Amino acid sequence: MPIRVLLVDDHKIVRDGLRALIEKLAHLQVAGEADDGKKAVEMAVQLHPDVVVMDLTLPRLNGIEATSQILKEVPGVKVVALSMHSDRRSIVGMLQAGAAGYLMKDCSFDELDLALRSVVAGGKYLCSMVTVTVVEDYLRQLSFYGCTCAESGLTRREREVLQLIAAGRSTRQTAESLRISIKTVESHRQNIMDKTGIHSVAELTKLAIRMNLAALDA
Fold it and tell me: How far apart are CA 97 and CA 207, in angstroms?
């Protein structure tokens, strides 16, 4: 049975090119095409393809959100990102959404073919440029957790206070949430600032995000 592929890209010339190449291979078959994120989700639910080749920049619904919705709605489907974007936010966003592969649009078709076969077989596939970004991000996180957090030495209660500060809670609301006094909250807050050298709510919020204590859109 050929691998059934749903092509998602808002440029028809890209879809036409991929279709022409795929139709030359007996082990691949184009199940359908979509030119925006909403349509991609609808077609994935309707067609149940084996794998979705997903662009990131799409009308109506971007590739990251479309990927997330597809994987929730269609059990077993795999998503491979095929994008011009090599920035950390795009790559991490797609991988967090559940994509099994990520390639740049300047890759060869042979590499795309390999990626499709790899993810359908249960593996993961990242092109070399994406792999470098992922490794650098991992090392950056190791550096942060190994240095910043260790040096700051925040206690469990201080981390709880920091999380609530990042969530926009007032001193009184934080005290009520943790069932401690306002004076104690103020003391913890001062300790956090002394240990980290950070003295603004905006920067404390960024610290909380890096420590996975707050949402990215906080």
Answer: 23
**For residues 37 and 55, what is the distance between their CA atoms, to the nearest angstrom?**
9
pLDDT tens column, 176-217 = 999 999 999 999 999 988 888 888 888 888 888 777 776 554
What are the pLDDT digits (tens) for 55-105? 999 998 999 999 999 999 998 999 999 999 888 888 989 999 999 999 999
* Lookup: tokens for 101: 């592969």
Q: Any residues with CB less than 8 A from the CB of 12 and at least 6 apart, and which? A: 35
Provide the sign of the torsion angle of the four alpha carbons 72, 74, 80, 85, taken in this order. negative
- Calculate the CA 131 to chain-centre distance: 14
Q: DSSP character for 56?
A: S
The model's pTM is: 0.64
Tokens of residue 131, six digits: 């792999």
Radius of gyration of the chain (CA): 22
The rounded distance, in Å, linking the Cα atoms of 103 and 128 is 8
